[in-house]
Amino acid sequence: MCGIAGMIDLAGRRTAPRGAVAAMARAIVHRGPDEDGFLTETGLELANRRLSIVGLADGQQPISNEVGSVWTVFNGEFFEYPEKRAELEAKGHTFRTHTDTELIPHLWEDHREGLVDHLRGQFAFCVWDKRTNEVVIARDRPGICPLFYTVRKHDGTDWLLFASEMKALFASGLVEPKADPRGLNHVFTFFAMPGPVTVFDGVTMLRPGHLLHLKLGRSTAADVQQRAYYRVEYPDRGQEDYGSDERRVVDGFEKVLFGAVQKRLRADVPVVSYLSGGVDSSLVVAMANKALGRAIPTFTISVQGEGMNEESEALRVARHLGCQPVIVKTGRDELRTGYPELITAAEIPVVDTSCLGLLELARSVHQNGYKVALTGEGADEWLAGYSWFKINKLVGFLDRLPGHVGGRLRSLFLRATGQPRFPFANYRHTQALLGGPNGWMDLYGMMSLNKLRFFTPDLREQVLAQSPWDDLGLPAELHRWHPFNRQMYLGARIMLPGHLLASKGDRVAMHSSVETRYAFLDEDVTAYMATLHPRWKLRGLLKDKFVERKVAERWLPADVAWRRKKMFRAPLDAWVGVTGGWIDQVLSPESVRKAGYFDPEAVAAARAKLPNMRRGVGRTGLEMGLTAVTATQLWHHLYVGGGLCELPTRVPGGPAAAA
Predict the structure, then answer these.
(1) Which residues are CB-neighbours of 248 under 8 A, at least 6 positions away?
(2) Residue 599 needs a FRET pair 20 to 30 A away by CA distance; which of 49, 134, 242, 356 works?
């Protein structure tokens, strides 16, 4: 993995402001500490910060085709590089390096923007054809590698700026970090930032499976529009593979998953793996050992807290598989002191406190001399591993009642537990977009209620006037899918790119110069899972990830294969009773009033009330909300306004600001 950045004059006539792109590259040096590279031409300047993993000696970017007419900067890995290179060489293409980056210019020569259909892996790239003055910027299918962009007018010219992280855009000096209420609405609705909207005004996330295609000299700011080249496709309801032959279904899943693990071990540096002791990471480690013919090193996070520590389970799996484990301990103290670094890495208000554990885990991988780690993320999204699938199956009979009875009963439940409620018209609008009731909403709908609890009256009125669900671009065919598959798609559209692959994945890993690889997000694996009938994902009420667990029985002890999922989390109430320090400072009435997002009295009342509340839905919802408020206040201080606490701000300056 690497970091990429660039500035493009849409008119194709100007050179970038001197030093601006170099400043952008410096802002993301953690993504590529090994070397940098630049291409400066009339109309554009491209930059790369390299984390060398494949082609160590000759993979410096930008890289061109053999005649220097097509150039690219690239972040990620193409796991089928050896096979694709052989295919291209058979067609007459000449390769000059040993890095997978070189696939891009040669595939452009053969397929132009259709090159994305021939690339497998995790990637974000920009390719420029010097002859036709065309630019394509693209992002991988699941959204593993990030890419952000904005269009800004500078010195009479419309410039497209793009980068792997938003802090690089700010470093250019052309982009001032201002809060976007739509983005904050997303964070307080989805527990994540799924895109394309971001928390910064005018900054857009390139969605997974999307690209930009521009013709310099002919394109204007209005032409900078994302186009989908891929989206997950489920069969119409009733057309799923029911799978009467269990052995055939299990054999098929085992084959594609083992192939995905094998490909993700390809590197010119050693590969390690995260290990929680759950079935997903344990199965990945077992398959990696088989593919390598030896035990792979493992890294485990140990959250110090009652009911949260999975250290013993992970150690048991490591011993069973013969792995040498590294245990990384973290707890409440690390949470309080490390959260500013987490927000710095993620660039958004992070509501899930367990992300700090992943930050510590990646740091340990780096400190032990490694650059690449396998992970088990992705299985829960596509094989129904989360609790909301079971909750929805348990209470789903409510949704079969006529006249929105299910929604009205949920509203009565909120009233009975003292929760705020949205107008029923909002609920009906969301249901219409989602094709009906959705289990994801039953759980994470609690997060949305905090807009009513904490936002100022003006901001609350503003966000209630717009639906964040309209920003997601949900596919029209969603309504034709099995309701169970609609739930899975929603989790994958929101949580996967907006949280798990961002605040728990790329952003916290690359903050320590570590690349994470995801076998469960392999194109063949996700396509296979999508075709299966829901009964292979959730059998009965408790047997989630059924087909995966049947495979795991062949590789792991039965109790590991069928171990119930334990949500990896850290204590949500770490802010309770804190006095002094940055937490007390950002939550003070003066700081809350200065930032302008939240009602100071509501925040103070929540802090006073929370320690005395019993465990339950009401307390959990308030914990989530207060954590989101704390994270937003800290984010505002670090990136937007400063002045809320004694911590230094984190926005890098750029040379173009004074130009």
Answers:
(1) none
(2) 356
Q: Is 644 in the same domain as 590?
A: yes
The DSSP call for residue 638 is: I
Q: What confidence category does residue 427 fall into, taking pLDDT thresholds of 50, 70 and 90?
A: confident
R_g of the chain, CA atoms, integer Å: 24
340 shares its domain with 274 = yes
Tokens 């590991």 label which residue? 560
Is 43 in a helix, a strand, or coil? coil
Residue ranges making up the domain that contains 399:
391-489
- The dihedrals phi and psi of 391, each to the nearest 5 degrees, come to -60, -45
Q: What is the pLDDT of residues 83-136, one digit of tens each?
A: 999 999 999 999 999 999 999 999 999 999 999 999 999 999 999 999 999 999
Given the residues 2, 126, 145, 645, select the one marked as catalytic: 2
Sequence-separated (6 or more) residues with CB below 8 Å from residue 113: 136, 211, 213, 229
Model confidence band, residue 612 (pLDDT cutoffs 50, 70, 90): confident
Q: pTM for the whole thing? A: 0.94
Dmax (CA) for the chain in angstroms is: 72
Surface-to-core class of residue 510, CB atoms within 10 Å of its CB (0-12 exposed, 13-18 middle, 19+ buried): buried
pLDDT of residue 387: 79
Closest CA to 14 of 39, 45, 42, 47: 42
Q: How many CB atoms lie within 10 A of CB 625?
A: 26
> In the annotation, is 323 catalytic?
no
Q: What is the pLDDT of residues 560-594, one digit of tens each?
A: 999 987 654 545 555 555 556 899 999 999 999 99
Rounded-to-integer distance, Cα 647 and Cα 458, Å:
29
Query: C-alpha angle 447/458/416, rounded to 5°?
Result: 40
Same domain, 75 and 153: yes
Q: Could you tell me if 58 and 203 lie in one domain?
A: yes
Instruction: Evaluate the CA torsion angle 301, 307, 311, 317 in order and state its sign.
Output: negative
Distance from C-alpha of 135 to C-alpha of 228, rounded to nearest angstrom: 16
Confidence of residue 542 (pLDDT cuts 50, 70, 90): confident
Mutual angle of helices 355-367 and 332-346, in 10-degree steps: 80
pLDDT in tens, 128-149: 999 999 999 999 999 999 999 9
Let me know if residue 501 belongs to a domain.
no
Q: Are 31 and 164 in contact (CB under 8 A)?
A: yes
